[in-house]
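Hi all, posting the design record for the shared folder.

TITLE: backbone redesign
STEP: 1 of 1
STRUCTURE INPUT:
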């Protein structure tokens, strides 16, 4: 099954929705509240510090993941797609109030750098509530 993380909301231009293949075979879905503190800070807080609309993308993604490791891998895929966005895509994603492309790209790189550091911490050694 594919999910579309970011679809055309309210503009007439054709945007590229992101289709990620989802293999969530479990009936229970994950939520951002299930993430370790380290993962939450690395991805969710970093996105929120930039713009809440970016955080929404990762929050939606989490509901289509099996576990934290799946969320991290799908976040990498999502960022890879977002790095290809053009101005129209940004306008759509940020509901008509797009950030500067360079700042958006810098934030994506920062999140990826955070993920690299996060992956150095074994899942069982991360802090969960």
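Okay, here is what came back for every position:
SEQUENCE:
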């Amino acid at each position: 099954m594919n999910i579309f993380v970011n679809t055309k909301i309210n503009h007439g231009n054709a945007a590229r929705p992101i289709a990620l293949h989802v293999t969530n075979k479990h009936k229970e879905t994950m939520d951002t509240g299930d993430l370790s503190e380290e993962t939450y800070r690395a991805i969710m807080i970093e996105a929120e510090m930039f713009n809440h609309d970016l955080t929404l993308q990762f929050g939606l993604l989490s509901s289509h993941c099996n576990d934290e490791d799946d969320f991290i891998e799908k976040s990498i895929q999502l960022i890879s797609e977002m790095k290809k966005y053009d101005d129209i895509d940004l306008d759509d994603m940020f509901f008509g109030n797009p950030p500067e492309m360079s700042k958006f790209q810098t934030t994506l790189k920062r999140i990826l750098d955070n993920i690299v550091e996060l992956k150095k911490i074994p899942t069982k050694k991360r802090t969960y509530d």
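COMMENT: Confidence is low (pLDDT under 50) at residues 6-15.
Let me know if anyone wants the other runs.
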